[in-house]
Amino acid sequence: MRKRLLFLFMLSFLLVLVACSDTTSSDQETETNTDEEAATETDGTIKIGVLASLTGALESYGKQTQQGFELGLEYATDGTMEVAGNKIEVVFEDTETKPEVAVQKATKLLEDDDVDFLVGSSSSGDTLAVLPLAEEYEKIMVVEPAVADSITGEEFNPYIFRTARNSSQDAVAGAAAIAGPGVKIATFAPDYSFGWDGIEAFKDAAETLGAEIVVEEYADPEATDFTSHLQKIIEAQPDYLFVVWAGANSPWNQIADLKIQDKGIKISTGAPDIPALSTMEALIGMEGFTVYYHTLPDNEINDWLVEEHKKRFDGEVPDLFTPGGMTAAIAIVEALKQSEGDVDANKLIDLMEGMTFETPKGTMTFREEDHQALQTLYSIKLEEQDGVPYPVPVLIRELTPDETAPPIMND
After folding, report:
1. Structural domains in the chain?
2. Cα separation of 51 and 102, whole Å?
3. pLDDT digits 0-9 by tens, 73-93
4. pTM, 2 dp
């Protein structure tokens, strides 16, 4: 009898333990499911860090990029500033056009602000200094507007995607405008990566077309007196002077003062931003190329950009680098739509390689091999127009993405 009572007691005890275990397990499962549902329902925040020259020699470029990027996010998200249920937050940092500062600011964005993407920068030197951080921290970096070939060439890493055109794309457009068998060309550029890469790419394209480069001159990008360089070019007696330049201290006034065109040397260059165009009155009639002028593209996105820019910035039209900033923002939002908000860079790389998207300059595609955006450039002539206080780039023809596709240089 006592054994039977003991057996019943032990059986009851075990049943209680099992019941408690089931209840605890059920409670834990319910709690886990609740947490998962809460995580699914709670919107996250996607952070984008933008590096730009917001002060210094390239300040106007940085501010154009900033304005374009903000407008691009608004356009791409239909004004919600959200993508795939996640809010978008942007942090802008001024590189001061100093590579060491760019590295400091990028590190701050990655470590302190914990950004999911990097964008930038206005200077190729700044950008090249930051590229290794994108790979180290495994974050997608969209390069805009820096153009050095080496960014998607020997310094390339798989986390880099460039919406900006590169020097070789400029070079193909520039060479197509003037190069041919027997044509003698002098070149002039700033003495840093932007200038070196631009001239090297132009030489390759021009020589392929049969032209001869008779002299190359490089000047300190901070210089204000270019006389000695221009005199050497005059002495070489070329048919054309092809100029690659960026920044406020441009050589156009001195080129006019030295009456280079009166000496039988035709000037050719990429039509720059509007402030620089204002110094190029002596070059009216010049045929060259441009990355962008607001009247050249014919598409709905550019129409929206021009209209909204005028509304928000006292009637001012978007300038040379504004559409690039917009394009960088559109590219990021498009990638996030495809990833459904997943910011894992290694997943995004697979999605963004070969990705085609619409921009103020028409359709762009990230080339799979080097992540360079293939894009339209414009063959133009500078003309005088009533009511416009600077020479206006007038379209000769669009140079298609296939025509301006640069060589792959990251092998």
Report:
1. 45-164+295-375 (3.40.50.2300), 168-290 (3.40.50.2300)
2. 7
3. 999 999 999 999 999 999 999
4. 0.81
